[in-house]
Specification:
The complex is a heterodimer of chains A (148) and B (749). Chain A has 148 residues and is α+β, with helices and mostly antiparallel strands. Chain A has five helices and five strands, in the order E-E-H-E-E-E-H-H-H-H. Chain B is built from 22 helices and 27 strands. With 749 residues, chain B is an alpha+beta fold. The chains are: A alpha+beta (148), B alpha+beta (749). Bound molecules: FE2/S2 (inorganic) cluster (2 copies). Chain B: GO terms for molecular function: oxidoreductase activity.
């Protein structure tokens, strides 16, 4: 099976129903995308599939063959992603940091689709869980990135 | 947790020899090519330590902590583990201030086990909000000593008196000849010098980094997926493991009906029976997981004399709560003041109420994992999330059947912890990883699914508290008797004696600051059938809720405003009175409500105080009700930790503690039925989502009192402030958490 991650083609010999998350983490060694729940509850595993924020823990790899997948490893190569990362740094968002790959990817997807989001847009898109409670800093960073 | 230290003695102490791992860690391995402060240590190494056995004073040996690289950056080994609380940044600020190195030039990692790092009275753990306050003086001294060594080395090199030299960040300056030498060029010579003592410290007014909102040193890596947690690690040749536990603790795996089929699944290496679990090893974790979940296991009930705690098949949360509520009496006294009996008898009015709080899960976002690898030289390496490396080392040695010195513990940064990663038998995966590595002769990386984590987490204990207060004719409290019923986590893991109350079971009811003349706090011990553990702010997480909501009941019974009554009872306690006034001011002046906000919602405010972990906190919450649920709009927190290191991190930690405290008040409870927890993932155990996060407003008050903790203190005031506010709107007292259990309606309709 062929899949394209961060612009690079990978040939995989793997059961087609393997979740994309585990292909990324264990097959390809891209551990920036995190496992939190495995059942689409937390968003720690968020990647972009054709620009859409997608929970990779419940996405079979066969479903994304032929799609453009972007992970946190390539986020700074994307102009919007780069802005988001700078906002995350300037707003000092992270605490333990474990959820933040997913948060940054969710924010990148939002700003690619809606460059000037309203507070409601932000609330609707930024639904990933953070056990450290960085939610206020996340919202501030998204607003900051939108203005950058 | 306040009394943990004396109890740790049996569990950890091991300081007679330098652990072997000092010479094996990446920290030193990476430096062998680099001429750097620290290289002398492994060379002296263990042999020397065994012969001479010099007494090591924790926090004094510069080379155990500080390694200056050729490029003058500093590799620093922190005694405390980073898990979001910002301790690595705080260490860089404190040490950098005295060493004269900008915190941005630090790379910090968790230190291995060893006597150099036992900074908490001869022990070490990352907990009790102790990291900065227990090491602040030692770490400043350490930085200052290292700077002096660099100056000494420069003086020798230049052949000038040390007094003529100065430093600028990262370099020694000789003004007379306009020369400057980078620290990196001096590190080797400096490392060979004896460590000076009593080096003068910088004056507080000259601080550049301590006390300032210095940026976190880990922020960019954590924003780009580069931060590496235990779950991300990999060693050559490792097998991946997944487990299925018996749903009730104590059950043992019996027949495996389809073992051969499972062994034939793709990538499967082997199937193993473990104490209380079955494991599958495979060439990827997903394959291991799928295989272990395909196993058809017959579980046997615990054998008589089982060495683990057996969860009874008829256990339920409801039943345990009823059991706690049914206990009568005043319990064993923990704190007494005055004569509570006669004072109650003579009171004009008695107020009574009983409260309860449920078991809670840590639900940190990183599920626990561990890697175990036996090396050819007879050592065992373990990579595992942990808050107490020496304890893990001692236990891993027992599991492996080798000497503790042969166990090398690596302590990666933590994807959240909140008390999750202490040594709790049956709650940590590393023992299983060791057994599997031993069985296969291969390194094993074991990862628990979120579902196994919810099954085996060590829970915040369930507790009940009963209060009885006496008011005088004017409505002032003159007597207060409280008793908590349940079990404390400290007693569970560090020993409990029948004649002494475990302070973790009463902290937050004991130690209150209000001037009520006659008081008694007692405790009735009831074994908690669940595996219990430390949960952010420990006993305070529920006891301050019990006390501070009862306080409002006393105030209402005596027809007093709850804020004013608190102020009156703090008349002789200027630090606390200033703090409650500070939070009121921060919120725009105290008003209880109900009042109508600009958006038309009917709102009320509640106030609470807490004295956790050496700090003082006053909290106000503003809430409304919507469709039977509490909406929290604002939380104001005034926190007095005495003195501070990083106000930005404090503000972030208060935000975090508010989120967790609010999550516990609104949503969280672990519910057991038939000996099994009902929820096995976040769908059944909801935690605070973004749309329920209030605005958080923080004021830091530096009273100059001895430095207190920061990681936990923001939490305990939140549940009572929220519940006190909600009770104003409902017109009914709320005495049980979480609030999601109740359908709350505004009495105004
Ligand atoms: S791991 Fe995918 S949503 Fe939690
Ligand atoms: S920063 Fe820790 S879970 Fe979000």
């Amino acid at each position: 099976m062929d899949i394209t991650i961060n612009g690079q083609l990978h040939q995989l010999d793997i059961e087609p129903d393997t979740p994309l998350l585990w292909v990324l983490r264990d097959e390809l060694g891209m551990t920036g995308t995190k496992y939190g729940c495995g059942v689409a509850q937390c968003g720690a595993c968020t990647v972009l599939v054709d620009g859409q924020a997608t929970r990779s823990c419940v996405t079979p790899v066969e479903a994304v063959a032929g799609s453009q997948i972007m992970t946190i490893e390539a986020v700074t190569q994307d102009p919007v992603g780069q802005k988001v990362v700078e906002a995350w740094v300037s707003q000092q968002v992270a605490q333990c940091g474990y959820c933040q790959s997913g948060q940054v990817m969710a924010a990148t997807a939002l700003l690619k689709q809606t460059p000037k989001p309203s507070d409601e847009d932000i609330a609707a898109a930024m639904v990933n869980l953070c056990r450290c409670g960085t939610y206020n800093a996340i919202a501030a960073a998204v607003r900051h990135a939108a203005q950058a | 947790m306040n009394e943990m230290r004396p109890l740790l003695k049996a569990a950890t102490r091991k300081s007679d020899a330098l652990p072997l791992n000092l010479s094996r860690r990446s920290f030193l391995g990476a430096s062998l090519g680099a001429l750097a402060l620290g290289v002398v240590l492994p060379a002296g190494g263990r042999a020397f330590a065994q012969e001479a056995a010099p007494a090591i004073v924790p926090g004094t040996r510069v080379n155990a902590y500080i390694q200056i690289q050729p490029d003058s950056t500093v590799l620093f080994r922190s005694a405390f583990i980073e898990g979001g609380q910002g301790i690595f940044t705080a260490m860089a600020q404190i040490v950098g201030e005295e060493l004269d190195v900008d915190p941005t030039q630090f790379v910090v990692e968790g230190a291995p086990p060893g006597p150099d790092y036992t900074l908490i009275g001869g022990y070490r753990f990352t907990g009790g909000s102790m990291s900065v306050r227990k090491s602040y003086d030692a770490m400043r001294q350490l930085g200052a000593a290292a700077r002096q060594m660099l100056l000494q080395a420069a003086a020798t090199q230049l052949g000038v008196p040390m007094a003529e030299l100065a430093t600028q960040p990262g370099r020694v300056i000789y003004a007379a000849s306009n020369r400057s030498i980078p620290y990196g060029d001096l590190a080797t010579a400096a490392a060979a010098l004896p460590v000076p003592t009593d080096v003068p410290l910088r004056a507080r007014e000259d601080f550049r980094w301590i006390g300032k909102p210095v940026a976190r040193i880990d922020i960019r890596d954590k924003s780009t997926g580069k931060a590496t947690y235990a779950i991300d690690l990999k060693v050559d040749g490792m097998l991946y493991g997944a487990v299925q536990h018996g749903v009730r603790l104590g059950m043992e795996p019996g027949a495996l009906a389809n073992e051969d089929e499972v062994k034939a699944m793709p990538g499967v290496h082997s199937v193993h029976r473990l104490p209380g679990a079955v494991a599958v090893l495979a060439n990827s974790w997903w394959r291991a997981r799928r295989a272990v979940e395909a196993l058809q296991i017959t579980w046997a009930e615990a054998a008589p004399g089982s060495t683990v705690r057996v969860m009874p098949a008829d256990y339920s949360s409801e039943k345990h709560l009823a059991d706690l509520k049914a206990r009568t009496g005043d319990g064993l006294a923990f704190e007494t003041h005055g004569e509570v009996g006669p004072a109650l008898a003579g009171a004009a009015r008695i107020v009574e109420a009983s409260f309860d709080a449920p078991h809670l899960a840590h639900a940190q976002l990183e599920p626990p994992s561990a890697i175990a690898r036996f090396n050819a030289d007879g050592t065992l390496e373990v990579w595992a999330p942990n808050q107490a490396p020496e304890m893990f080392q001692a236990d891993a040695a027992k599991v492996a059947g080798i000497a503790p010195e042969k166990v090398i513990i690596h302590s990666p940064i933590l994807g959240g912890f909140f008390g999750r990663h202490f040594l709790y038998q049956t709650a940590n995966p590393y023992q299983q990883a060791i057994i599997l590595a031993k069985a296969t002769g291969r390194p094993v990386k074991l990862l628990w699914t979120r579902e196994e984590e919810f099954l085996r987490d060590a829970l915040r204990p369930m507790s009940v508290a009963r209060f009885r207060a006496g008011l005088d004719a004017s409505g002032m409290p003159v007597a207060l008797s409280a008793v908590t019923v349940g079990e404390g986590a400290t007693g569970r893991w560090f020993g409990r004696t029948a004649d002494k109350v475990d302070s973790s079971a009463v902290e937050g009811i004991a130690g209150k600051v209000y001037a009520i003349g006659n008081r008694r706090v007692g405790q009735i011990h009831v074994d908690d059938p669940a595996i219990i553990g430390f949960w952010r702010s420990v006993g305070h997480s529920m006891n301050d809720f019990f006390y501070e909501t009862f306080f409002d009941e006393m105030a209402d019974a005596g027809k007093q405003d709850p804020y004013e009554l608190r102020r009156r009872l703090l008349a002789d306690s200027p630090r606390h009175r200033a703090l409650i006034e500070a939070v009121a001011e921060l919120s725009g002046g105290w008003k209880r409500g109900p009042f109508t906000a600009e958006d038309g919602t009917r709102r009320a405010r509640g106030v609470a105080m807490a004295s956790p972990f050496g700090s003082e906190v006053a909290t106000i919450a503003e809430v409304s009700l919507k469709q039977g649920e509490v909406v929290v709009h604002n939380v104001w927190v005034a926190v007095d930790p005495g003195s501070i290191v990083n106000p930005a991190i404090i503000e972030a930690q208060v935000n975090s503690a508010v989120a967790l405290g609010l999550s516990s008040a609104l949503l969280e409870e672990v519910v057991y039925e038939g000996g099994v927890p009902r929820a096995r993932n976040y769908d059944g155990y909801p935690i605070l989502p973004p749309d329920r996060m209030p605005k958080v407003h923080v004021r830091i008050v530096e009273s100059g009192a001895p430095m207190g903790g920061i990681g936990e203190p923001g939490l305990p005031g939140v549940p009572p402030a929220v519940v006190n506010a909600a009770s104003v709107l409902t017109g009914q007292r709320i005495r049980s958490l979480p609030l999601s259990r109740s359908n709350l309606t505004d009495m105004a309709g």
